[in-house]
Design a protein that fits this description.
Blueprint lengths: L7 E9 L4 H13 L4 E6 L2 E4 L10 E10 L3 H14 L14 E7 L4 E3 L2 E3 L8 H10 L12 H7 L6 E4 L1
Antiparallel strand pairs: 1-4, 1-5, 2-4, 3-4, 3-8, 6-7
Helix pairs in contact: 3-4
């Protein structure tokens, strides 16, 4: 894990399916990019996706945010969890409904395996609602550390139930 003060390119997955999801996503993007140690680069369109896990919940709104930061992965995780908490995030059910879910997808080329944090995100290869928005804001020749090229992951991952709702 990189512990230097250097700036790293980071991709954050955003998701919400409760209490005006589009507003939660937009406010989270604003809160993240207003952190003094974060520089906004790009954000994907918003997508509607089917829930993973329990199906008795509303569809999700998802996006991917591209930033630069000098925060360490753990400090970024803490900042993101604070933003989730500010949005009323409750962790009652794994893959359950939520007001806001913020995941560090990629942190430069780092591979992080800690009890509370895995980068690249453990499910990045299997999530169309992550891969397709990610492909909007990076070249498909992006290599996902320890996985494959984004173009290869896109070929293997269906976009079933995923559609763009806002550019």
């Amino acid at each position: 894990m990189s512990l230097s003060e250097s700036w790293n390119e980071v991709f954050i997955g955003l998701g919400s399916n409760l209490d005006n999801p589009i507003q939660h996503i937009q406010q989270a993007i604003s809160a993240i990019t207003q952190l003094t140690t974060v520089e906004f680069i790009a954000c994907s369109s918003l997508y509607n996706s089917l829930p993973v896990g329990p199906q008795d919940q509303p569809n999700f709104v998802n996006a991917v945010l591209r930033i630069k930061t000098c925060l360490t992965p753990q400090n970024l995780l803490k900042a993101l969890q604070n933003i989730e908490n500010d949005h009323g995030r409750v962790r009652n059910q794994h893959w359950g409904a939520r007001t806001l879910d913020l995941d560090i997808l990629l942190y430069g080329t780092d591979i992080v395996k800690e009890p509370n944090l895995q980068i690249p995100h453990a499910e990045i290869s299997n999530r169309g609602f992550v891969l397709y928005p990610l492909a909007e804001i990076v070249a498909e020749d992006l290599f996902i550390p320890g996985k494959a090229y984004l173009s290869e992951l896109l070929t293997a991952c269906q976009a079933d139930g995923l559609w763009k709702i806002q550019s």
